[in-house]
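Q: I'm a student working through a structural biology exercise. My instructor gave each of us a protein and asked us to get a predicted structure, then write a short paragraph describing it. Mine is Nidogen 1. I'm not confident about reading structure output yet, so if you can add a plain explanation after the tokens, that would really help. Here is the sequence I was given:
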Amino acid sequence: MIWLFWVSTCLLSLAVLTRALELEGLFEFGEEAGDLQLVPGSDSTAELPLNGSLFLFADTFDKVYINTNGFVSVVEPPAEEQYLGKMPASFKMIAALLGDLDDSDGRGKVHFRWDSSPEVRNRTAEHVRRAFPRDDPEEPVGVLIVTWENMAARGTPGRGDGLDTKRNTFQLVVASMELSSCAILLYPRDRLQFLSTPVGGESKLLEAGFNEGLVAGWWWSEKQGTYFRTTTDEETSIRELTEKTNSGQNGVWVYEIGSSPIFVAITPGMVTTLPEEDYRPITAEYAEPETEEPDYPEYPESETPTYTEPERADPRYPEPSEPRYPVVEPLQYPEPAQPVPPRSRSQQPQIVVVDEDENLDVNVFAYNSETCALNRHKCSAFADCRDYSNGYCCHCRPGFYGNGKDCVAEGKPQRMNGKVNGRVFVGNSPSPVELSNNDLHSYVVANDGRAYVAISNIPDSLGPSLQPLSSLGGVIGWAFALEQPGYQNGFSLIGGMFSRQAEVIFQPGNERLSIKQQFTGIDEHDHLVVSTELEGRVPAVPLGSSVQISPYKEIYQYDTNLITSSSNRDYTVTSPHGGGGAQTRSYQWRQTISFQSCPHAEAATAATQQLSVDQIFVMFDADNHLIRYAMSNKIGSAHSSLPEQNPCFTGRHGCDINAVCRPGDGLRFTCQCATGFNGDGRYCHDVDECRETPQVCGPNAVCSNQPGTFRCECLSGFVFASEGRTCIEETRPVDHCQRGSHDCDAADRALCSYTGGSAFVCSCLPGFVGDGRVCQEREKTPCERHRESAQAATSSSGIFSFFRPRPAVGQYVPQCDRHGAYEPTQCHASIGQCWCVDASGQEVPNTRTGPGSTPLCIDQAVTPAPVGPTPRPDVHPVAPGTHLLFAQSGKIEHVPLDGYDIKKEEAKPLLHIPDRVVIAVAYDCVEKMVYWTDITGPAISRASLSGGDIIPVITTELQSPEGIAIDHVARLLFWTDSMRDTVEVSKLDGSQRRVLFDTDLINPRPIVTNPAYGRLYWADWNRDGPKIEMSNMDGTDRTVLVKDDLGLPNGLTFDLEDQQLCWADAGTRKVECMDPHRRLRRQIVEGIQYPFALVSFGRKLYYTDWRREAVVAVDRHSEKETEEFLPQRRSRLYGITTTPTQCPQGTSCVKNGLKHPKVNGGIELILTCTCEERFVEPSVLLLWQFG
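A: Happy to help. First, here is the predicted structure for Nidogen 1. I'll explain a few features afterward.
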């Protein structure tokens, strides 16, 4: 119930907002936040230049002074004796909590900084907006943050009378806008532990306020200006600093402290309590579906479903000599150890004959009297071939089901893809609607019998009228229906090769529609393939009308090579605006299924079985021209009996979608992972056959692991032989670069790049110029000249002057990278300080740190562009197999994976873009394109892995795009912008751009997709409230998925195989994963350093680490770090992704338009798209989730 979770989240947010300020609610402070620290003492002062102007009363100031005694002034303050206990003082100050304070014992500290980061400015603006809700406040351009932490009253440390243990912690935040300034004072709960300090031999209350100091009076005289005091001479006023508010949250106080010279008053915030009308919880209008609620059986009170841990068994998958994809050696199967169990033929089945004008055109395989010796290859890789007296038959092995020609793993979800053609008349229309190669896609969760179907490119004139025909694609529901004890679904009996012909007669108009379908088995992508033809007339259903189909039961009657069924079905049509009311209609359905069974083995199928279909949902999506169906299917007895209550037969078991439910006694059951998967049944992960059986693909081939299976792909320079199994050497022109027969300059000055055929390009290496055949050392960069100048700044006289120049003691020497650019972090060892610099080497204000600390600097400098003739920034071709792609300033590098191991010695640049700083990368497995964001353009661009130019995708209305994700099914691009605070979407070419979210975002960065469920996930590393959110891809059902125990969730990835969302957190220093469907969260590793980006591949997670400047591999199953890769150039690594050789199941589709999910009647429609013919791998197009 997503809406209930959402409402509860709103209520929780309300509680968080109104409760007292906790210590964690302060703005981040300390060394990691980039703070400077005041020298310990009882009256210390530090000057802080501001990178902007601060308004206080009617004046502006460009520097401030921070003092131990709880205040900030705009002039250097006098000795404390001149103002403590003598307020108002003669100088301008902001007294956060003024008193005689002391931090000389080492426990207390005063932190301060000027901060212009977007997250701090946004958070500050939010406090101001909350305090002045009727105003339209300016956006801060900079923020002063001062924190007094664990301050003691002077004279109390070490006294031992109890007062020395009392400490005060508070914070002052000043927001500088273009025309005004605001002060935010934060007093966390329980952190004001003393209310007075000894001054001049007597106790004086602490005080807070804004002091104008001396101002000009008459005749050049001076007078005392305004002293706006926020506390009084009563102790209660100080206690109430943590208990009350003027900004909507207890402990937080906001004041406008300066603007124009005319208006000089201090203006307090206006929200002393939380107005109900502003913060009342928002409740969603949730409409219950009008369809009947499924009649689930009630469990006896004395017995509840019990989950039993299954016995651990070795995973079953083909032996090395029995690969599931192109094999190297002929298949060899052992002879069966046990005889075939006897089966009984059905006796005198009742057959319903379908009237036909022509014979069924059945194009199915046929058995003959040959033996297994010559026909083993005709059986499934998961079947055994058995000889009989007059021929052979194929039988699926344990753990699989089907007819032996086609076998699929028990419990594994199944997909169906195909095309729809034909002519359909609607109502009384004299002209038919033509259908030509419309895509049909279906998906079944086999362990609970739920089926989903979509047909694309349906025109508005036909789409609404196809809604009653749920069985148009519902045959897959029968094929993979949830089996009741002693009964088998269609695929178990006849496999995936059969013909189906159905006739539909509508009442009361007697319209007739003929449906012919040809199922041609399981393709190389484990998808059932079907072609469909429609011919006839259907009654008209107005556009916008909804159709509800009542649950129904259908009797299937079985005979040799023939199955028939018939039923009457009722449906209700409701007009779009309710004006026409609801009409109940019906139609008769009759169908015949023809197939070729093995004639040599006895069948054991019941003569009749009943298919029960409920939870039926149909809809025509006019925006995307898609007809969608969803239903639950069970196959069982045709005779009335008590319904099965074991969860395995009701589908309410909670096993993983890649698991089979094994019933036990009563309501007991176990979950067992499907073949090709490992786990406890509740959570199943893919078995990597490529790693466990490295030689499964044979020589000169690369094994690519797939969910529950694997594929083989020939190495570069090799192709499959004519039999499609063995990889043989490809005949191609000479690669002169590899042979060394090129005429490029020496390898230490030039690079030879093979470009196909016998062609190559010579280019000079960084630091050199020329045409690649002759390269000379290039002119030095500003950083290099700066460095040489500093090194030469030594005494030129004396006996040692002829030695190599070196810097004088204490001389700062800039650090340059190998391209000659300034390193983003510069350090001066003699004084023990480090700071950040921009591209020109200028220090970035407020980034300087003291000894033992190094600032985390974003590399704002870009790699200098090469000088002289160089190749275009094309992509260097990538060899087959899976690679890691990662961003490193002005380039994207790739390193191949051998299974899960990083082939470090083969790392190479994929793409040089020297004038850009690349942050995020993503990969489109359909078109083999890499996408990336850069913050220097800013822009989003793409390029093909096979080579070619860089193609701009998004170049306008961007500020800081830091996250990017691809939906390879719907052909969509998603990204986050941490400056615009948006989550946005467009098609892959940048068209049809839309903002999905622009509220309640502070620092959105990583973003990932789950195409199978049409879900979007992103993280916001807002230091005050980090969170991970999810929504549908059209922006509906936005939900906070994780908000507890987060720090800086920088990296995010989604494992499509295991349906696991994982993140790397630089604040908690952990990597964690969660099942977003069941909200099961678990820690993978802890104690990591500073992760930036994260990607999942099989059982491994790979993340980039800023501090280690490395790619780190983590095994999710052993929960250990396994490997580290250090690129040749040591600098910060940013985004990371993989280039899988094949798309995950349910891929390679192109979306028409951006309108995806909707919510209707308790069923959530997640995703739709339309496949193009040029793609090899069709996919499932949509998935529903029953509410």
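A: Here are two points you could use in your paragraph. The longest strand covers residues 582-595. Residues 413 and 446 are 5 Å apart (CA to CA). It's a good idea to check both against the output above yourself.
Q: Great, thank you!
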